[in-house]
Every structure is written in C-alpha cells, then in structure tokens.
Amino acid sequence: MIANSLLATAKLVAGIVGHSNALVADAVESLADLFSSVIVWRGLVVAAEPADADHPYGHGKAEPIASAVVSTMLLLAAGSIAIQAAFEILRPHHVVPSAYTLLVLVVVVALKESLFRFVMREGISVESSTVRTDAWHHRTDAITSLAAGLGIGIALIGGERYAAADDIAAVAAAVIIAWNGWQLLRPAMNELMDASPDPTFADRVSRIAADTPGVARVEKCLVRKMGYLFYVDMHVEVDPQMTVQRAHEIAHDVKDKVRRELPAVHDVLVHIEPAGQKQRVRGQNSEASG
User: Fold this and answer.
1) Are 258 and 153 members of one domain?
2) N or C: which end of the chain has fewer CB within 10 A?
3) Are strands 229-238 and 217-226 parallel, antiparallel or unpaired?
4) pLDDT tens digits, residue range 67-107?
C-alpha cells in the first residue's frame, strides 16, 4: 500500500507536469491498486474470522467477494481511462511529453514487477485467489507503464505529428487492464458459485480416503473452496456386515487422514455406504425387468 501510494503520486505529478496522458492513466491504475489492496486486506481479515452462529461455515466467502470487487474496479478504471484517452486523441495535440517521464516509467516497471513476484509467491503459498488477484494488479501496472513508455517514446521521436501516440498508448493500456480484470473476475465468481476447484485436488482426496484401512471404495468426492480453505463431501463404501461403531471409526479415520495430509482441507463430511449394495440393487432390477 505504501509502495502504491508513492508510485501513484510520482506518476500523477510527472504525468501532469510532463504533459503525458498515458502516465496520468498509469497513475490512475496505481490508485486503483491502492484501493484494491485495502479491500483485499479487509477481505482477508474477515475471511479469517472463525465460524459463528450466523455463519456456521465460517467467513471464507469474504475473500472471493473482495476479489470480485477488486476485479470490477479494474474494469471501471479501464473504461474511464479509455474514454478520457479517446477524447484526447480527437483533439489536436501541440505538446509532446517530456523526456524525463520515460525515466519515471523505467523505475515504475522495475518496482511493480518486483511487487508482482513477491505478492504472487505469497498468494500461491496460502492458495488465496484474492492475493493472486492483487498480485496481478502489480503486473498490470507494469504492463500499462510499458505501454505508456512506448507511446511517450514514439511521441518524443516523431514530434508533434505523433503526439497522439501517448493517448493511443493509454487506450492500449486500458484494453490490457480490462482484459486482466475480466480474467480475474471469472475465478472469483466461480468460487462464489461453489464451482469445483482443480479436479486433481479431488482426485488426491479420493486416493487418500481409498488408502484408509477399512475403506472398500470411494463412491463420490465433492470439493468446494471457501476463501483459502477447502470443504469435502464424500461417500465411502465399507463392509455392510461391520458394526455401526466400526463404520463410524473408519469415517473419522478418513477425515483425519485427509486433513492431516492436505492441511488446506478444513472439514470433511463422510457418508458411509454399504459396499456392493448398489450393484445388488441393479442386479435385482435387471431380474425384475426380465
């Protein structure tokens, strides 16, 4: 947040004084980064709160909500930048951006790419879509700064005839921002809709459960993500002749083993099924129909 504040201020001042609309647009994107970081921070704080009477499954949905809000902010910022730049392109240009604005952009690109790598590494380590979304804000900022640098460079080389290149670069930057905003909004909406995560994760859960002593077969395994935690619902087949007590113990063994080997799994709901029961039912139905 401190880095975004300093960078946004530096780019805004340099863009206004140096007559660069692309740099001003880049500053607006950095300001959006600042507000998005505040939203991400609060979203993570709320998501980390324990379950209560009103939210028995916890507050994990606060994280994808924050991610969706941040992504929407990117889309709105892109629209605002594109409209402003389009008006500037239609107006005749007589002022070329100052050369020192390129130096500002070089520093900005280096810092924002470093921030992207740091935040993305943290987001992957905690499996947080919101933190990864915030990381892409930094990468987007670096990309828009490169686009602004290209436009300013063309305007400086070509003179007043190519002064509009600065504004064209701003439009290009807005397109990049909008694309990234949309790409980041989709996974957040999927998480809010309880879409299944990576299928390989459910496969890992099934294999762990199937290797638990007493488990004959894993019939069904459903996984949903809430914040940076996973919730699992599964049907496990056991010997139909065993006692309820033993089946209950196996269900707890499955739950404990999955949570132990996959710490990101917060809870596992195990439904016990009698092994071979469905096959027998299907066989009886076939005989009856015959």
Assistant:
1) no
2) C
3) antiparallel
4) 888 888 878 878 877 887 787 777 765 566 677 777 877 88
